[in-house]
Amino acid sequence: MDIVSYILARNFAKKNLKNISNEISDITNVLGAKNLLKITGVDNSFNGIDYTINDDGSVRIYGQLTSEVGSGLILNDNTYLQKGSYKLTTGQLNESDTLITIYAVDLADGGQTILGQSNENNGEFTITEDKNVAFGISADEPEVDITIYPMCRLSSIQDNTYVPYVMTNKELHENINFTTPTFDKNFEGRMDVKRWGKLVSVYISYYAASTGRVSLATNLPPCATPFAYGTCIKSTSYTTTQNIVSISWDEITLDVKEGNTGQMEISLLYITML
Questions:
Q1: DSSP strand E in 158-250: where?
Q2: Rounded to 5 degrees, what angle do the CA atoms 106, 107, 109 make?
Q3: pLDDT at residue 30, as a whole number
Q4: CA angle, residues 182, 261, 232, in degrees to nearest 5
Q5: CATH number 3.30.1490 given to 44-166
Q6: Looking at the domain that runs over 175-271, which CATH code has it been given?
Q7: What pLDDT shows up at residue 18?
Q8: 26-35, 79-88, 236-245 — which is least confidently predicted?
Q9: How far are the Cα atoms of 49, 118, 209, 258 from residue 213, in angstroms, in the given order?
Q10: How far is residue 155 from each of residues 9, 65, 125, measured CA to CA in Å?
């Protein structure tokens, strides 16, 4: 390969690697679950230092220290981490020289073992087995007024950009609750009800033999609004019908219009009040 071909090939490879890097950055920062630190702690004051937790997961730390033992705040008292390598960051420019840090401790010995700190070892730590850990803030500055952005991420993710905590795909799957409704005695079909927190998804496959209003099922998670409406599609043509499917409180009903009988595929999404 001549020098010109080598340079062109190298530049092409660099460009592609940059594009891949940008795509990975978008996946972790925009679409994915990058920050594994879910803040469950609350605003508090300790030894002269006040802690205010903001909506984006950042924490304002301000005040004058009144004790030689320092100050701190529990951010999360129990997080499950799989074995692997992780990195703790606070969003400060020089993590290694600051006395405002976040840390992770091992709950297996009551929090006596510090697994990692954001100001030591570049914030990185490794666990060789799955562990339940707790996260906290340590504030040892005599006087402080700063906002930090606590984050625990896989150490393989190089981008330091802060993103708030969101559940991973695994956590989302594990948090799906399947609800079994009480069907009307004449109901012949299939109904799947899934719940993620307060969001409820209903799928129904149903054959409407005649027109009129029919109750399909009760005992669903109660609707937060007086009514919520769904979509009703004919299975044969996949076209939207004029039929009206709705939930009121915990009952789903279907109003079948003239000329719109037959096999139906019904979907409904609503917010529950419980």
A1: 176-179, 182-183, 189-196, 199-208, 212-218, 228-229, 231-234, 244-248
A2: 85
A3: 44
A4: 60
A5: no
A6: 2.60.40.2460
A7: 52
A8: 26-35
A9: 62, 62, 12, 11
A10: 30, 33, 8
